[in-house]
Design a protein that fits this description.
Elements lengths: L2 H7 L2 E7 L4 E8 L1 H8 L5 H17 L8 E8 L3 E9 L8 E9 L16 E8 L7 E6 L5 H13 L3 E10 L7 E11 L20 H4 L2 H14 L4 H5 L5 H9 L4 E3 L3 E5 L5 H8 L4 H7 L6 E4 L6 E4 L28
Parallel strand pairs: 5-11
Antiparallel strand pairs: 1-2, 1-10, 1-11, 2-9, 3-4, 3-6, 4-5, 6-7, 8-9, 12-13
Length: 342
Amino acid sequence: MNKINQIAWDDTVLPFQLDRSDIRGRVARLDGVLDHILTRHDYPAPVAALVAEIALLTALIGPTMKLRWKLSLQVRGTGAIRTLAADYYAPESDGKPARIRAWASFDEDRLDASQPFAQIGDGYFAILIDQGQGSTPYQGITPLAGGSLSACAQTYFAQSEQLPTRFSLASGHSHLPGSDAQWRAGGVMLQTLPAQPQVGPEGGSGKDGLIEAADILQGGESEDWNRANMLLDTVETLELIGPSVGPTDLLVRLFHEEAPRVYDPQPVEFGCSCSSDRVRGTLSIYSAKDIDHMTTDEGIVTADCQFCGAHYEFDPSSLGFEATVDHEGNPVEAQPDPKEGQ
């Protein structure tokens, strides 16, 4: 695979369908996007591994939702790794890239040599969909189970959507001749649409009654699904991460007997929605007394974006519902307390 072809598949999501088994899927490759996310933070190895996994999941799941604005994946736990969050912003128009960002919070003193997922502890995995102004946000939550974030996502689709779903993901440092090492990740998502989901009133056959693919698929659908999963089981880490094996070559290698058909790839890039106006909006519910508590000894209020690291500084008199000046320093009238009447 030459250099041009390698670059062509960098930071893309390729949709495909297996015509023989009526299974749809996606192949994602993240390199520059993931490297941008992880090099902005000095994450310890187990944290970086989970941030890479949730970013890749977001890239694979985002295009399936027919988004107008944003899909978010969030993980909250009681362990050393407290929070994982990633956002997928839909393309603004045809041909434009989607945008991805990801971030984690953790207690470094509690990290140990155990598997990264185990260090999240008890908690939940959530998918949130926000279609923008005028719509009601959607939230689906599933328990942390299965030993990986991808297993949690599979459980979500089985439980909430009754869609059998499978992920195979990998990430790591890539050392290409003549270039510096950088983060890369790659993965495959499979999903099938059952004709008539078959789930009993007492839940599924999985642990704690969780629904699994075997509870949903019947007959030929089950055979097709099992066959596609067996083929995906043969994938190797270097095939997923690339760049020496392109996504189309990977699909032919794995699923040539399933008649794979590919569609137009979706480019992705790093993108953050933070801005000074958003920070001002967040602080607009606070009184002058509250703002005073946030003010530094230097007489400013600061805010840092956890995703991209952007740093903002504000005149405290321009913040909150009792602001006396606007962001340009012009006098303004104080606004009513938004907490009154609640």
